[in-house]
């Protein structure tokens, strides 16, 4: 019998219990899934930081922690966690992210806002360039960033990517390091941020780097709020250096009602909806990792604790 503790807000239990039990049964896993196991009996924790669990030391038999979300910045630095940590790479989450980003990139590329705002009787013919003439920069080339970059490339956009470490992706020009970031930003008319949130990535877009982008460029951020220096972005929007920003994530969530982003004419706020973990697909990812660990195989999507992602 394998004991799995579900450590997440109570509302998530009703969403995940049935899919998890079905996924365990599909892999012939004999699992005792509950929200209240005695710590010393637990083999695996299905975890969300908002659960309130912050001290892992009582879990003396723990084999791994399986995060429910893609982001692990709230658990990876935890000094009491001494077992492997796997982040969530959920096919449903990836599909949702690809759809959301593609929609907003196409919105900017085609100038859809201009048409929506121009329902005033004026015959304003605006012909956008072809996608192959539009340069898109992807900041972050992990699972999500790579999936989005490939989808945009399939639509014929001129896509290049950047990561802190060197990457190689067929059909996509990949840059890395400080010099590579400058190169990417200089060429990119639309920038998409899908970097992890770490001390090294905080304020990746700041006054200096925003100034490197082509005047009138666009920003799409479904990654993490801390990737952008808010004051610098507001300044760049005021001068027209940045034409518009679509922001799905913020340093404080929910975004306070008096935050200047809400009222800014050149900012679109969405309430952290770009992608979410889907219980029906995420349950199979969790079951697969438990089956692998029980069979002595390495976990999928293992987090590099030193790097923070």
Describe the structure.
The structure is a single chain. With 309 residues, this protein is α/β, with parallel strands linked by helices. The protein is built from nine helices and twelve strands. Strands 8-7-6-9-10-11-12 form a seven-stranded parallel β-sheet, with helices on both faces. It has a five-stranded parallel β-sheet with strand order 2-1-3-4-5, covered by helices on one side. The model has no long low-confidence stretch (mean pLDDT 97).
Strand and helix map with partners:
Layout lengths: L1 E6 L2 H17 L4 E4 L9 E4 L16 E4 L17 E2 L4 H20 L1 H6 L17 E5 L3 H12 L3 E6 L9 E4 H11 L2 E4 L13 H6 L4 E5 L8 H10 L2 E6 L12 H4 L3 E3 L9 H16 L15
Parallel strand pairs: 1-2, 1-3, 3-4, 4-5, 6-7, 6-9, 7-8, 9-10, 10-11, 11-12
Helix pairs in contact: 1-9, 2-4
The percent range for helix content is 25-40%
Number of distinct beta strands: 12
Number of helices: 9
Percent of sequence in beta strands? 15-25%
Q: What's the mean pLDDT score?
A: 97
The ordered H/E elements are EHEEEEHHEHEEHEHEHEHEH
* CA(first)-CA(last) distance: 31 Å
Shape: elongated
Offer a quick outline of the entry:
This protein has about 300 residues and is α/β, with parallel strands linked by helices. The chain has helices spanning about 10-25, 90-110, 110-115, 145-155, 175-185, 205-210, 230-240, 260-265, 280-295; strands at about 1-5, 30-35, 45, 65, 85, 135-140, 160-165, 175, 190-195, 215-220, 240-245, 265-270.
Note the main attributes of this structure.
309 residues, alpha/beta
């Amino acid at each position: 019998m394998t004991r799995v503790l579900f450590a997440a807000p109570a509302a998530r239990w009703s969403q995940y219990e049935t899919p998890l039990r079905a996924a365990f049964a599909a892999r012939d896993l004999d699992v005792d899934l509950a929200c209240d196991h005695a710590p010393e009996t637990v083999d695996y924790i299905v975890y969300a930081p908002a659960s309130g669990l912050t001290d892992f030391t009582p879990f003396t038999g723990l084999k791994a922690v399986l995060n429910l979300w893609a982001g692990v910045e709230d658990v990876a630095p935890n000094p009491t966690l001494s077992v492997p940590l796997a982040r969530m790479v959920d096919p449903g989450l990836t599909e949702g992210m690809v759809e959301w980003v593609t929609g907003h990139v196409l919105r900017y590329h085609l100038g859809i806002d201009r048409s929506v705002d121009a329902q005033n009787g004026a015959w304003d013919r605006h012909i956008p360039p072809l996608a192959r003439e539009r340069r898109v920069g992807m900041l972050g080339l992990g699972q999500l960033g790579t999936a989005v970059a490939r989808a945009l490339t399939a639509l014929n956009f001129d896509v290049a990517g950047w990561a802190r470490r060197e990457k190689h992706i067929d059909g996509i020009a990949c840059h890395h390091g400080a010099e590579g970031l400058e190169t990417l930003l200089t060429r990119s008319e639309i920038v998409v941020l899908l970097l992890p949130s770490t001390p090294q990535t905080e304020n990746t877009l700041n006054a200096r780097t925003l100034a490197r982008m082509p005047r009138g460029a666009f920003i799409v951020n479904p990654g993490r709020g801390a990737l952008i220096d808010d004051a610098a972005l507001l300044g760049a929007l005021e001068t027209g250096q940045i034409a518009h920003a679509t922001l799905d994530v913020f340093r404080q969530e929910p975004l306070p009602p008096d935050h200047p982003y809400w009222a800014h004419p050149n900012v679109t706020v969405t309430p952290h909806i770009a992608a979410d973990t889907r219980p029906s697909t995420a349950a199979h990812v969790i079951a697969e990792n438990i089956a692998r660990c029980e069979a002595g195989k390495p976990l999928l999507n293992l987090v590099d604790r030193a790097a923070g992602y």
